[in-house]
Amino acid sequence: MGFFVEEVPKPDKIEHSSDIETNIDNIPEKPTTDNLNKNKGLDVGTMNLVSSSLENNNDINIKNIRNVFIEIDKDSISNMDLSQINNVEIDDVVYIIGDDAYRFANMFNIPVSRPMSKGMISTENIDSADILAVMVRELIGQNEDLQNKPKCVYSIPANPIDGEMNVIYHQNVFARIINSLGYEAVPLNEATAIILSECSNTNFSGIGISFGAGMTNVALVYKSIPVITFSIARGGDWIDLNTANSLGMIPNKINAVKEKKDFSLTNFPTGKKKERRIKEGLIYYYNNLINYTLKNILTELEKSEAELPEELPLVISGGTSLANGFIDLVKEQINQIDEFPFDILEIRTAENQLTAVAQGCLVQALK
Ligand SMILES: Nc1ncnc2c1ncn2[C@@H]1O[C@H](COP(=O)(O)OP(=O)(O)OP(=O)(O)O)[C@@H](O)[C@H]1O
Ligand SMILES: [Mg+2]
Question: Using CB atoms within 10 A as the burial measure, which of 41, 175, 206, 338 is most buried?
Fold first, then answer.
């Protein structure tokens, strides 16, 4: 496929995002060439962009950046020194991007914007794709050796069963961005990546569910091959928005309570009255999201003519599944279903629910 290649604008200063050292068992034992070492995995998420690369035989390096920006009026910052802030100027508009945008917004109490919505490039801002290009460049860097292009496997959602969006534009824009950085861009279904990262013990077979910010992605994978994939246009943002609407509050306020360590989906809500109401609302919408996802899995399985394996593990990942008690709710709801067309070997969360997709992309990139 021929993509047109456009230069990615350089941010004034490229800051190192958080580097997390981690280990995974299913990375092939010895990369054979230098080029293989430069291969990257990239999880393109509505709230978080996460990259993974191989450091040496067993360690992988994970970087992440918050997928947000704020637009600044150029005149109002003429005296400001932005050299320490991650920013980019596109057509006379200055954007502060990533984690700096988040900090800036909190400091000055202004809302952040998102270049993606419901799993795909947002239609809200004409510069969304260019802003994303700068963030991707920050994570994977520019490969200068064009004779020897490393692979960058990047995650894409499946088309939503309950939304209008089509993934084609999103997938192609990211291919263009990644190719322009000197990589060979290879798309991989997001939920399939979870199975590649977490299921070496079942020969890369299982059902993966990624409960993200913008979407929930599901894949039934047999021996690395995605057999059924679909997405639902509901995730953490949907929980925040609907709880907020039910209580007449703003989603940010709900989000802050949702991510608190003391919030639990299985314990009676505690705290002051307002907080108890928020927690109660969150529990209803969490239950609804899980129920809706499981129902849709059953419907898609019924529709499928594929011959299904007798037993498969179910692996849950994504930031939305970090809430205390999430896995218990999933187990409870699955126990109430008696017509699953195969046995569920086990129900577990990914080892790291925020990095599993990026790790699965790297597993694919190193194949
Ligand atoms: N501790 C927590 N408890 C509950 N929810 C959390 C927690 N931490 C993060 N989240 C939620 O997880 C979501 C982000 O998850 P994730 O990074 O997996 O999404 P994403 O990959 O960026 O989005 P998508 O895959 O939908 O495009 C947000 O809705 C955030 O509020
Ligand atoms: Mg995701």
Answer: 41
